[in-house]
Amino acid sequence: MGEFLTHPFGPLCGPESKVLILGSFPSVKSREIQFFYGHPQNRFWKVVAALLQKPVPVSVDEKRSLIIDGKLALWDTIGSCEIIGSSDSSIRNVTPNDLSVILDSCDIRKIFCNGKTSYSLYGKYIEPVTGIRAECLPSTSPANAAWSLQALIEEWKKILQFTE
Protein backbone atom coordinates (compact mmCIF):
# COMPACT_ATOMS: atom_id res chain seq x y z
CA MET A 1 0.00 0.00 0.00
CA GLY A 2 1.32 3.44 -0.94
CA GLU A 3 1.62 6.67 0.93
CA PHE A 4 -1.02 9.36 0.26
CA LEU A 5 0.77 12.55 -0.78
CA THR A 6 -0.15 16.03 -1.96
CA HIS A 7 1.98 17.74 -4.59
CA PRO A 8 4.57 19.65 -2.52
CA PHE A 9 5.22 22.63 -4.80
CA GLY A 10 3.46 24.81 -7.34
CA PRO A 11 3.80 25.26 -11.08
CA LEU A 12 6.65 27.06 -12.80
CA CYS A 13 5.61 29.53 -15.47
CA GLY A 14 6.31 33.04 -16.61
CA PRO A 15 4.42 35.72 -18.52
CA GLU A 16 5.96 34.54 -21.82
CA SER A 17 5.34 30.80 -21.31
CA LYS A 18 3.96 29.20 -24.49
CA VAL A 19 4.47 25.45 -23.91
CA LEU A 20 3.32 23.56 -20.83
CA ILE A 21 5.21 20.36 -20.00
CA LEU A 22 3.46 18.06 -17.54
CA GLY A 23 5.06 15.24 -15.61
CA SER A 24 3.02 12.78 -13.59
CA PHE A 25 3.97 13.35 -9.92
CA PRO A 26 7.28 14.38 -8.30
CA SER A 27 9.77 11.62 -7.55
CA VAL A 28 11.12 11.08 -4.05
CA LYS A 29 14.19 13.18 -4.98
CA SER A 30 12.03 15.97 -6.43
CA ARG A 31 9.91 15.98 -3.29
CA GLU A 32 13.08 16.24 -1.18
CA ILE A 33 14.41 19.27 -3.06
CA GLN A 34 10.94 20.75 -3.71
CA PHE A 35 11.58 21.15 -7.43
CA PHE A 36 10.99 19.42 -10.74
CA TYR A 37 13.10 16.51 -12.04
CA GLY A 38 15.37 16.28 -9.03
CA HIS A 39 16.69 12.77 -9.65
CA PRO A 40 20.24 13.13 -11.05
CA GLN A 41 19.64 10.34 -13.58
CA ASN A 42 16.52 11.98 -15.05
CA ARG A 43 17.47 13.39 -18.44
CA PHE A 44 14.91 16.21 -18.47
CA TRP A 45 17.38 19.03 -17.81
CA LYS A 46 19.87 17.68 -20.38
CA VAL A 47 17.12 17.43 -23.00
CA VAL A 48 15.73 20.93 -22.41
CA ALA A 49 19.21 22.49 -22.27
CA ALA A 50 20.09 20.84 -25.59
CA LEU A 51 16.87 22.06 -27.21
CA LEU A 52 17.41 25.61 -26.03
CA GLN A 53 21.16 25.45 -26.80
CA LYS A 54 22.10 26.39 -23.23
CA PRO A 55 24.40 24.81 -20.64
CA VAL A 56 22.82 22.09 -18.51
CA PRO A 57 21.57 23.86 -15.38
CA VAL A 58 22.75 22.69 -11.97
CA SER A 59 21.07 24.86 -9.35
CA VAL A 60 17.33 25.30 -8.91
CA ASP A 61 17.73 28.98 -9.88
CA GLU A 62 19.49 27.99 -13.12
CA LYS A 63 16.75 25.44 -13.87
CA ARG A 64 14.03 27.99 -13.16
CA SER A 65 15.71 30.51 -15.51
CA LEU A 66 16.13 27.93 -18.26
CA ILE A 67 12.39 27.18 -18.22
CA ILE A 68 11.22 30.79 -17.99
CA ASP A 69 13.73 32.11 -20.56
CA GLY A 70 12.79 29.24 -22.89
CA LYS A 71 9.10 30.29 -22.76
CA LEU A 72 8.19 27.00 -21.14
CA ALA A 73 6.02 26.12 -18.15
CA LEU A 74 6.27 23.06 -15.89
CA TRP A 75 3.85 21.22 -13.68
CA ASP A 76 2.42 17.78 -13.10
CA THR A 77 -0.92 16.20 -13.93
CA ILE A 78 -1.41 14.91 -10.38
CA GLY A 79 -2.25 17.14 -7.42
CA SER A 80 -2.46 14.29 -4.91
CA CYS A 81 -2.31 10.51 -5.03
CA GLU A 82 -1.30 7.33 -3.32
CA ILE A 83 2.18 6.31 -4.46
CA ILE A 84 4.95 3.92 -3.48
CA GLY A 85 8.27 5.77 -3.66
CA SER A 86 8.65 7.22 -7.16
CA SER A 87 6.84 4.43 -9.02
CA ASP A 88 4.35 5.72 -11.59
CA SER A 89 2.90 2.22 -11.87
CA SER A 90 1.93 2.33 -8.17
CA ILE A 91 -0.13 5.54 -8.48
CA ARG A 92 -3.70 5.22 -7.19
CA ASN A 93 -6.51 7.51 -5.97
CA VAL A 94 -5.57 10.44 -8.17
CA THR A 95 -6.78 14.00 -7.80
CA PRO A 96 -5.57 16.06 -10.78
CA ASN A 97 -3.94 19.47 -10.59
CA ASP A 98 -6.06 22.45 -11.61
CA LEU A 99 -4.25 23.80 -14.67
CA SER A 100 -6.31 27.00 -14.78
CA VAL A 101 -3.64 28.70 -12.65
CA ILE A 102 -1.33 28.39 -15.69
CA LEU A 103 -3.84 28.44 -18.55
CA ASP A 104 -5.51 31.63 -17.27
CA SER A 105 -2.24 33.53 -16.85
CA CYS A 106 -0.14 32.36 -19.80
CA ASP A 107 -0.63 32.11 -23.56
CA ILE A 108 -0.10 28.35 -23.65
CA ARG A 109 -0.10 27.18 -27.27
CA LYS A 110 0.55 23.48 -26.65
CA ILE A 111 0.58 21.00 -23.78
CA PHE A 112 3.05 18.12 -23.80
CA CYS A 113 3.16 15.25 -21.34
CA ASN A 114 6.50 13.83 -20.24
CA GLY A 115 5.71 10.13 -20.53
CA LYS A 116 2.74 7.81 -20.82
CA THR A 117 1.54 8.02 -17.22
CA SER A 118 1.21 11.79 -17.35
CA TYR A 119 -0.47 11.55 -20.77
CA SER A 120 -2.94 8.88 -19.69
CA LEU A 121 -3.92 10.75 -16.52
CA TYR A 122 -4.18 14.04 -18.41
CA GLY A 123 -6.57 12.41 -20.89
CA LYS A 124 -8.66 10.87 -18.13
CA TYR A 125 -8.91 13.80 -15.70
CA ILE A 126 -7.82 17.09 -17.26
CA GLU A 127 -8.63 17.08 -20.98
CA PRO A 128 -12.38 16.71 -20.28
CA VAL A 129 -12.18 19.90 -18.17
CA THR A 130 -9.91 22.02 -20.39
CA GLY A 131 -10.93 20.66 -23.79
CA ILE A 132 -7.26 20.93 -24.75
CA ARG A 133 -5.61 17.88 -26.25
CA ALA A 134 -2.07 17.14 -25.08
CA GLU A 135 0.70 15.33 -26.92
CA CYS A 136 2.76 12.56 -25.37
CA LEU A 137 6.55 12.77 -25.44
CA PRO A 138 8.81 9.88 -24.43
CA SER A 139 9.65 10.01 -20.74
CA THR A 140 12.99 11.47 -19.69
CA SER A 141 12.98 9.13 -16.67
CA PRO A 142 15.96 6.80 -16.22
CA ALA A 143 13.37 3.98 -16.18
CA ASN A 144 12.81 4.69 -19.89
CA ALA A 145 16.13 3.16 -20.90
CA ALA A 146 14.87 2.28 -24.40
CA TRP A 147 15.37 5.93 -25.39
CA SER A 148 18.91 7.31 -25.67
CA LEU A 149 19.57 10.93 -24.74
CA GLN A 150 20.03 11.81 -28.42
CA ALA A 151 16.75 10.11 -29.41
CA LEU A 152 14.92 11.99 -26.66
CA ILE A 153 16.35 15.30 -27.85
CA GLU A 154 15.26 14.57 -31.43
CA GLU A 155 11.72 13.65 -30.37
CA TRP A 156 11.39 16.57 -27.97
CA LYS A 157 12.44 19.10 -30.67
CA LYS A 158 8.78 19.43 -31.65
CA ILE A 159 8.14 21.66 -28.62
CA LEU A 160 10.26 24.42 -30.16
CA GLN A 161 7.79 25.22 -32.93
CA PHE A 162 5.33 26.46 -30.28
CA THR A 163 7.76 28.77 -28.44
CA GLU A 164 8.41 31.09 -31.38
What do these coordinates show?
The protein has 164 residues and is of the alpha/beta class. The chain contains 6 helices and 7 strands; from the N terminus they run ββαααβββαβαβα. It has one domain: Uracil-DNA glycosylase-like domain (Uracil-DNA Glycosylase, subunit E), CATH 3.40.470. The strands form 2 sheets. It has a 4-stranded parallel beta sheet with strand order 3-2-6-7. Strands 1-4-5 form a 3-stranded antiparallel beta sheet, with helices on one face. β4 (78-83) and β5 form a beta hairpin. α2 (44-52) packs across α6. The chain is globular.
What keywords describe this structure?
6 helices, 3-stranded antiparallel β-sheet, alpha/beta, 164 residues, 32% helix, 7 strands, 21% strand, Uracil-DNA Glycosylase, subunit E, 4-stranded parallel β-sheet
User: Based on helices, strands and strand pairing, what is the structural class?
Assistant: alpha/beta
Order of helices and strands: EEHHHEEEHEHEH
Largest sheet: 4 strands, parallel
Reading off the top of the CATH hierarchy, the class is best stated as Alpha Beta
Give the helix level as a range of percent: 25-40%
* Overall pLDDT metric: 96
Quick take:
It is built from six helices and seven strands. It has helices spanning 28-33, 44-52, 60-69, 100-103, 116-130, 149-156, and strands at residues 3-6, 19-23, 72-76, 78-83, 92-96, 110-114, 134-137.
